[in-house]
Every structure is written in C-alpha cells, then in structure tokens.
Specification:
With 207 residues, this protein is of the alpha+beta class. Helices cover 43% and strands 24% of the residues. It has a single domain, classed as Aminopeptidase.
Length: 207
C-alpha cells in the first residue's frame, strides 16, 4: 500500500465518491443523487489543503485531507468556531486533519486508517505545525485519546451537510509522531516541498 497526494480532478472525484459511500454506510448523511459528498468547498480549494489517498493494487482504498491554517480557515471552524479561536489564541500553529475514510467493505480498514493518520501527522510535522485539530464521531473519542494522546475540546450535535454529533479534539503533532512514527515516504516529502514553495509565492504576492 502506498500513501500519496491525489494527482488530478478525477482522483478528487473518487475521494468524494468514497466519502459519500462511507458516510452513508456510517449513517452520517443521506444518499446523494450523484453518489458524491462535497463539503467545505472553500477549504477544498485552498492551497493550504492537501488530499492524500491510500493506493492498493492500483485502486484508491482510503483518503485523508490535511489543511494548514490559512485565509480559508480549517474545517473544524464550521462547527467549533469559538473553540478553535480559543486554541489559536494560545499561540500554537494549528492544522486540521479531516475526511479520514476507507472503502466501507475493506477488511483491512484499520491498517489503512493507521497509515493515513501516520501520513497526515508526517505532513503536519514537516510543515512545523504544533497542534492538530480534528472532528470525530463521539464513539471514536476514546480510541484517538488512547492511540495518539488527543484531548477533547468541545462537542456539538452536528451541522451542515454531515448532521451527526461530533467532538472537537486536539493533539500535539510531536507526540502523535512519537506514538506513530512516520515512515520514509518520498511522495509526502515532495508534496510538502512543492506546496511550501507555492505558499511562499502566494504570500509574497499578497504582501
């Protein structure tokens, strides 16, 4: 299995189909006419957002999105705006990890999820982000606390396209990387280097 960034819009479409199928299977949302789930459009399109996929035998079997804090904000700002502002006020650099899904019938989904988490942690670490902010279903709260040292920040009943209860959790990126050490992934190293150059150009242009 290989974890890498998506290569084109067709793969993003696959991600949105995969997200739809998994969220429908979990009961997080209702089936959509086109079989796709699109949300957080402004974050999806932001240069600070990166979409990773797990490839097994040539097919996408899982995905995760990683977002650096920027003008578009983070996905967790939608449901937990005040709580996220409070975390930012503490001074850490923050990033978001979201849309962690695998094929609904994948027997090795736990292994794929762990590799996606490992990879997203590696991306945040390479960018120098200190605090990860994530939104999980309450039933996963204990798992992420035990696995990576996440702490619960706030709770909500669910808003927007995904209408299900959620918890906002935070974790130290350094601690998460210690507990789940990153592997040697040249694709992610290249992604971070290229995206950092793009962000530097955009910031100089905006200045």
């Amino acid at each position: 299995m290989n974890i890498r960034p998506i290569l084109n819009d067709a793969e993003l479409d696959d991600v949105q189909r995969l997200t739809h199928d998994q969220y429908v299977a979990e009961g997080y949302t209702t089936p959509q006419p086109d079989g796709r789930l699109r949300y957080y459009d402004e974050i999806e399109a932001a240069p600070e957002n990166m979409v990773l996929v797990a490839i097994d035998d040539g097919a996408i079997v899982g995905t995760v999105s990683v977002t650096l804090d920027g003008p578009a904000g983070l996905h967790v700002d939608h449901d937990f705006g005040a709580a996220c502002a409070a975390v930012r006020a503490e001074g850490p650099t923050v990033g978001g990890v979201w849309r962690i899904v695998t094929e609904p019938d994948l027997r090795t989904s736990r292994t794929v999820i762990l590799e996606l988490i490992r990879s997203s942690t590696d991306v945040l670490r390479r960018f120098g982000v200190s605090t990860a902010l994530c939104e999980f279903a309450p039933r996963h709260e204990h798992v992420y606390r035990k696995l990576l040292g996440f702490a619960t920040v706030a709770r909500c009943e669910g808003l927007g396209e995904v209408r299900s209860p959620a918890v906002l959790m935070r974790a130290s990126v350094a601690e998460a990387a210690r507990r789940l050490p990153p592997g040697d992934n040249a694709s992610l190293a290249t992604l971070v280097a290229e995206r950092q150059r793009l962000l530097d150009v955009l910031r100089r242009t905006a200045a």
